[in-house]
Amino acid sequence: MILEVCVDSYTSMSIAKDAGADRIELCSALNIGGLTPSYGLMKQAKEIEDIEVFVMIRPRSGDFLYDDNEFEAMKNDIKLAKKMEFDGIVTGILLRDGKIDIQRMRKLVEIANPLKVVLHRAFDNAKNPVEDIPKLIEMGICRILTSGQRSNALKGAHYIGKLQEKFGEFITIMPGCGVKAKNIERIHKITKCTQYHLSGRIDIGSKMEYREGIERMDTPESEFIVEQADYDLIKKARETIDKI
Description:
- By secondary structure, this protein is α/β, with parallel strands linked by helices.
- 39% of the residues lie in helices and 18% in strands.
- An eight-stranded parallel sheet has the order 7-6-5-4-3-2-1-8.
- Strand 1, helix 1 (10-19) and strand 2 (23-26) form a beta-alpha-beta unit.
- The longest helix has 16 residues, at 68-83.
- The mean pLDDT is 96.
């Protein structure tokens, strides 16, 4: 079975690989759901060999309804990921009515070719996305990352299981969000999925000694939260998957 780890730094990517990740989802700003990584981070990521890397293509935080300028940025970012010879991209676009934007998704798949394309958790915010899965398969989407339209993959496991049963032969269904060593076995028992997505990150704490500015400028404490992939959490997930 495959373990994918999402990371937003070179250090976290290195830790994830050492802990047993099979594949990396490369992002920036995981604390807000993950955005397109910088060129600098992508260049660093190419230094780590022998692991698949899929680049997040998401121009901003918030919803997945993008204007023409944002869509143009997404196309340019895909061209860069393609030029840098990554293995694939992870993206998603919705229409105003909540449906998956099939027309624009098809365009991104065309631009990305021959890179593989994954539909991220925009799927979980979509209206009746199951209706569009045949179209996603037809256009060449290789994988759907989903929490089963619930707050985490364990709560959405029965929904994910139905997707796996109906479409798993034609497209990879990958549970993600809240996945960890202690619940992978339960999720697998319900879904029968063979690929799992997690971040395995913890707050390692800011090393800043000077913090007087917090009170003077009303700086939120969250600015001193520094998250990083944790070797032990990812290793335990790896071991659990291998036992299954």
